[in-house]
Known about the structure:
CATH topology: Na+/H+ antiporter like fold
CATH class: Mainly Alpha
Number of strands: 0
Pfam family, one: Na_H_Exchanger
Helix content: over 70%
Distance between the termini: 52 Å
Strand content: under 5%
Protein name: Cation:proton antiporter
InterPro entries: Cation/H_exchanger_CPA1 (IPR018422), Cation/H_exchanger_TM (IPR006153)
Transmembrane segments: 6-23, 28-45, 57-77, 86-109, 184-204, 224-248, 268-285, 305-324, 345-365, 371-394
Membrane topology: Multi-pass membrane protein
Number of helices: 17
Amino acid sequence: MGQFEYTLIAATAILVLVAAAGVSRRIGVAAPLLLVAVGAALSYLPRAPVIRLESEWILLIVLPPLLYGAAVAFPVIDFRRNLAPIALLGVPLVIISALAVGLVLFLLFPELNLASAIALGAVLSPTDAVSATSIAKRIGLPARVVTVLEGESLVNDASALVLLRTAIAAGAAVFDLPSAVATFAWATIGAIAVGAAVGLLAAWLRGRFADPVLVTSISFAVPFFAYAPAEAINASGVIAVVTTGLIVGHHTGRAHAPELRFAEQTNWRTLCFLLENGVFLLMGYQLREYIADDIHDGYQPGYTIALGLLAVLVLVVVRLAFTLPMFAALGRGRGRVEQMGTRRAALVGWSGMRGVVTVAAVQALPESTPYRSALVLIAFTAAAATLLIGGLTLPPLARRLEPPGYSAVGDDPA
């Protein structure tokens, strides 16, 4: 295809994103799920071109601004206030989920080594805050539940990608547990140091300008200045971006007028809308090719999709088994609060939808990975299935569990 065709496809894709968002609000179906279906349908049109982006493009171009935009908008005060549930959901649950899914896949694929199986488990572990919180806000869940879901997504995206990198490195050599732990620790600590330095510098630089155009232009560059140096020293660019975003967001409220903050937030919401939903549209469009690859490699797509659904079952069971006792422990001894905490735990546990990070990260699996096409299709299936299940069942579950007349804005201890 020539430049004209690519330009026309990109422009048409934007219109499709807008139309899908409008339709999803009318019919009550999550926009990501609708976009996956639309993308899949478009791929079967006559003479539909094959579109495949290198995984590095998604990891380097899409994830940094998406995570930065979410981190900047997330209040540090809320992060500190809900640090315990966010940290527990964002790190231990990711590791446990990755190990559980990885072990199941390791047993089902005889030629798949354990490190590669855990790598796919890490891909499937992070939740997608956009899908879950959009539903949560629409049906009026308590603000604290929404905060925990958003904070969890920021942390578990980072921890999952660090675990993915560690597993891939372990799969390329003889597994060494102390070395893997050291790699994980350095990826985290080094990234936080880089992110803090870039965040403080960016906050200072932004404070020197009062023009929304100039401030927004600077902010578009900031996530890449956090991501690239961290990756250059073998730390996690994702953690660096999240750290930078939290710091910049914390300082923005004091350094800029409300009008400037509103203009910048609008620009970032637009960019994140296009990037996030564009990935889901591309995910649906590529499903046909990945099914074809699965058949070409000698597998049955039906069996592979069934494995994806099995992975979803494992993820749901592990998440509920983790969140219920966790919230019970956090709310122990608070009387009625403990009962409400259990309800919140069920809602948070059932809100484990997968999304853009899963879709992007699975394509980072090395080409030499055994069963790679099947593993990609499993990840795509898991993301689509969790969006469908969550989108259809979370609203009735919330209506059943939420006490009548309880305010979504209340300061409840989720």
